[in-house]
Amino acid sequence: MENPFKYGTIVDADYFTDRIDEVKYISQFVNSANHLILISPRRFGKSSVVAKAVKQSGRKSITINLQQVTSVADFSAKLLREFFKVHPMERMRHLISHFRIIPTISTNPLTGSIDVGFQPGVDGSVLLEDVMELIEKGHSEEDRIIVVLDEFQEILDLAPRLDKKMRAIMQEQKHINYILLGSQESMMTEIFERKKSPFYHFGEMMRLNKLPRDIFHDFLSDRLKNCFKTSSDELADYILDYTNNHPYYSQQLAATIWNIGTLQPETEDVFHAAIEHIVTTHGHDYERLWMNINRTSKWILQRLAKKGVLQTGEYPTSTIYSALKRLQKDGYVIYSDSYEIEDPFFKEWILKGV
Ligand SMILES: Nc1ncnc2c1ncn2[C@@H]1O[C@H](COP(=O)(O)OP(=O)(O)OP(=O)(O)O)[C@@H](O)[C@H]1O
Ligand SMILES: [Mg+2]
């Protein structure tokens, strides 16, 4: 039997639960002339919910993860390659002839996949402009394409003033719905909410929360049924208490519990065995991570792990505040109702050391 839980990649079908209202909300956007910006802490399910809504819309779409892009030229090549996945190249030939820099396009005869390249050293922003124009021209107001740019905050690092250039192009376009996703809360708000930013108020800002407890509980419990002596309802509660409802970590813990329970059914306390297994597996990563943060940050993480208060007089409030912001920016700490350590297994590892 296959593990009924999945974590780390985009989930769909049996691995996906709820998000009904969110999918509706996103669909309504792609059916209007507006753009959408979706923000949440890491691994809350942004990519999955957007993929679902886009698929349901039945519209043509292109998705690029900017974290996997190495330069503006590479970004242009990836956009063009994705564009050719939804449009036969033959029909676009006349539009490409207007390109100021002609790409080399080759088809892999075995897989049928298309590869796009540009000469090294070309001006990336010229390419990007041409490719973005091609996408616009290949569509109409009745047949808009959806362009999803995941980890959008990366454009700030890709090239100087790229945000300004892109915005200038995007504001002229009428045949594209953009969905811009990002996980680094502070950078994303910087891009879309700072008055001087070129993307200021570019679209509607949507924040994705964790999954509702009762629905996620039933999702976990259903899939853990008939596996263990411990009741699956109880296990689901343990999991969600432990991860504080976090979508990714709950699926990770459930998958590990399921594995141990299936492979070693004699395990006494499968819940704690699973936690121990995950913490041990990631021990090296946690150590490396710990070595690379400063003393104030270590102190904060230890206090948060023990649910202690941060205002103790041990460090000045301003020092704590800036370290906390940094930890949040780097994704170690998230804020939902209060500040918490993002990874419950890292928290467990920290607690072992204090
Ligand atoms: N609707 C859902 N139902 C069940 N599990 C989910 C759901 N959404 C997300 N998850 C869990 O969270 C994991 C991360 O989801 P996803 O990659 O969509 O999140 P993300 O916010 O895009 O993450 P990242 O910050 O890494 O880009 C999934 O692999 C899955 O385990
Ligand atoms: Mg994602």
Major β-sheet annotation: 5 strands, parallel
The CATH C-level name of the largest domain is Alpha Beta
Q: What is the succession of H and E elements?
A: HEHEHHEEHEHHEHEHHHHHHHEEH
CATH topology of the largest domain: Rossmann fold
- Any guess at the CATH architecture of the largest domain? 3-Layer(aba) Sandwich
Instruction: Give the CATH H-level superfamily of the largest domain.
Output: P-loop containing nucleotide triphosphate hydrolases
Radius of gyration: 23 Å
In total, the number of domains comes to: 3
**What is the terminal separation in angstroms?**
40 Å
List the total number of helices: 16
Query: Pairing-aware structural class of the strands and helices?
Result: alpha/beta
In terms of per-residue confidence, which ranges show pLDDT below 50 for 5 or more consecutive residues? none
Question: Could you explain the architecture of this structure?
Answer:
With 354 residues, this protein is of the alpha/beta class. It folds into three domains: 19-207, Rossmann fold, CATH 3.40.50; 213-281; 283-353, Arc Repressor Mutant, subunit A (Orthogonal Bundle). Helices cover 50% and strands 11% of the residues. It is built from 16 helices and nine strands. Strands 2-5-6-1-7 form a five-stranded parallel β-sheet, sandwiched between helices. A two-stranded antiparallel ribbon has the order 3-4. Strand 8 and strand 9 form a beta hairpin. The longest helix is centred in the C-terminal third of the chain and has 17 residues, at 247-263. The chain is globular and about 65 Å long. The mean pLDDT is 92. Bound molecules: adenosine-5'-triphosphate and magnesium ion.
